[in-house]
């Protein structure tokens, strides 16, 4: 996605060094048998294990309810009934720990997997397979996606409603329906689910051009998500102004996925916040400076946390170098209890190894 890393450039900046340090972090119980040796070393990157002592933990600050560490403040916002933290030297950045209840988290995880990847929303799979409907249901029912030759399906060519057509056509079939030796390309729906990396809601973002393509067909952001974003954006909005959600990017992270340092600069008005919702496994988020040379601040993001980036904070490099899928690190026990119904077992399996981020933007 962003900043495909050039290995030679990997260590050149403070941001890249921090990314590498956290990406390579291994929890103590996975350090292997050379424990006593690695303990005698300074706990640093060389050991391949790393150190999380500098990672800001807003949940711990909330629970301690004491004096805040230097540089961290509470933002008081009339009529907003969640605690909000900020960095005194980084205006425009707001952290709302535990903004969503477990029920709300489950709802948005289900939506992210079932509804958000549905056409006309585009996903990273669209360019490869054409538009895919009901991927989630197909994965649950262990179906297989087969690509059909275009000439065979001219009458089924997918019209996007704007005269543009997708050049590929794919359909789901049962395992038993696949004719051996037929030569068509086939992929398990469960594999595709794991390959899902992003989907876009509302105005469609074109990742190849890194721009919004308003000519692409799209639906409005669902009202419930727009209302949630409007409410959560309040601490970052000028008094009396309302946030207008026009687009959202949903990121799906598997165990070794990361999001390289970047600045989101394709929206017209940077005074408006990006509202960023975390779901599923815990991760480390880096908030850097206006160049990659500034040492970034690391913080934990957990399921249900919301981050706002507005104004000056929008010019800062940020990224996600590490997802914690290890069972004693992921911190999703409330979600796991909530997703205990038979119908939820596919979602539970997915989220135990994944993180989902929904970030909502006002484009104009
Ligand atoms: C993004 C982004 C952060 C996250 O999609 O632009 O910065 O928490 N996501 O995944
Ligand atoms: Mn971003």
At a glance:
The protein has 364 residues and is of the alpha+beta class.
Helix and strand layout, with pairings?
Blueprint: H1 14-23, H2 35-40, H3 58-64, E1 72-74, E2 85-87, E3 93-96, H4 102-114, H5 126-129, H6 135-140, E4 144-148, E5 169-173, E6 186-188, H7 189-195, E7 198-202, E8 205-206, E9 211-212, H8 223-232, E10 247-253, E11 259-262, E12 274-280, E13 283-287, E14 297-301, E15 306-309, E16 318-323, H9 333-338, H10 345-351, E17 355-361
Antiparallel strand pairs: 1-2, 3-15, 4-5, 4-6, 7-10, 8-9, 10-17, 11-16, 12-15, 12-17, 13-14, 13-16
This protein binds N-oxalylglycine and manganese (II) ion (MN).
Residues 262, 264, 318 line the site of manganese (II) ion.
Name some characteristics of this structure.
binds N-oxalylglycine; 4-stranded antiparallel beta sheet; binds manganese (II) ion; alpha+beta; globular; 10 helices; 6-stranded antiparallel beta sheet
Structure, described:
- Belongs to the alkB family.
- Keywords: Dioxygenase, Iron, Metal-binding, Oxidoreductase.
- Fe cation binds at residues 262, 264, 318.
- Its cofactor is Fe(2+).
- This protein is α+β, with helices and mostly antiparallel strands.
- The protein has helices at 14-23, 35-40, 58-64, 102-114, 126-129, 135-140, 189-195, 223-232, 333-338, 345-351; strands at residues 72-74, 85-87, 93-96, 144-148, 169-173, 186-188, 198-202, 205-206, 211-212, 247-253, 259-262, 274-280, 283-287, 297-301, 306-309, 318-323, 355-361.
- A 6-stranded antiparallel β-sheet has the order 3-15-12-17-10-7, with helices on one face.
- Strand 8 and strand 9 form a beta hairpin.
- The two termini are 23 Å apart.
- Residues 33-47 and 151-166 have low confidence and may be disordered.
- The structure holds N-oxalylglycine and manganese (II) ion (MN).
- N-oxalylglycine (OGA) binds at residues 249, 251, 259, 264, 276, 278, 285, 301, 318, 320, 357, 359.
């Amino acid at each position: 996605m962003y900043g495909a890393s050039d290995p030679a450039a990997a260590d050149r900046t403070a941001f890249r060094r921090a990314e590498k340090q956290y990406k390579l972090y291994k929890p103590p119980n996975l350090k292997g048998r050379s424990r006593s040796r690695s303990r005698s070393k300074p706990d640093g990157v060389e050991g391949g294990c790393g150190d999380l002592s500098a990672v800001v933990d807003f949940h711990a600050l909330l629970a301690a309810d004491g004096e805040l560490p230097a540089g961290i403040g509470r933002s008081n916002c009339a009529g907003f009934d969640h605690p909000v933290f900020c960095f005194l030297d980084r205006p425009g950045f707001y952290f709302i720990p535990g903004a969503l209840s477990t029920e709300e988290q489950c709802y948005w995880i289900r939506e992210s997997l079932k509804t958000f990847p549905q056409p006309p929303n585009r996903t990273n799979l669209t360019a490869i397979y054409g538009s895919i409907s009901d991927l989630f249901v197909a994965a649950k029912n262990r179906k297989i996606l087969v690509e059909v030759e275009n000439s065979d399906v001219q009458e089924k060519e997918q019209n996007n409603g704007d005269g543009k057509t997708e050049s590929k056509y794919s359909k789901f079939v049962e395992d038993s329906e696949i004719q051996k030796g037929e030569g068509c390309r086939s992929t398990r729906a469960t594999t595709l689910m794991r390959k899902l990396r992003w989907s876009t809601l509302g105005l469609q973002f074109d990742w190849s051009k890194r721009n919004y393509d308003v000519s692409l067909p799209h639906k409005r952001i669902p009202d419930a998500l727009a209302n949630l974003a409007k409410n959560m954006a309040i601490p970052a909005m000028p008094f009396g102004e309302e946030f207008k959600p026009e687009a959202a990017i949903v990121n799906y992270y598997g165990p070794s996925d990361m999001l390289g340092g970047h600045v989101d600069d394709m929206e017209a008005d940077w005074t408006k916040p990006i509202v960023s919702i975390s779901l599923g496994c815990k991760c480390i988020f880096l908030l850097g400076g206006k160049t990659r040379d500034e040492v970034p601040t690391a913080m934990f993001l957990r399921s249900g946390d919301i981050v706002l980036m507005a104004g000056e904070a929008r010019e800062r490099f940020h990224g996600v170098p590490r997802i914690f899928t290890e069972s004693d690190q992921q911190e999703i026990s409330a979600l796991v209890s909530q997703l205990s119904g038979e119908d939820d077992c596919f979602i539970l399996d997915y989220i135990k190894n994944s993180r989902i981020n929904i970030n909502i933007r006002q484009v104009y």
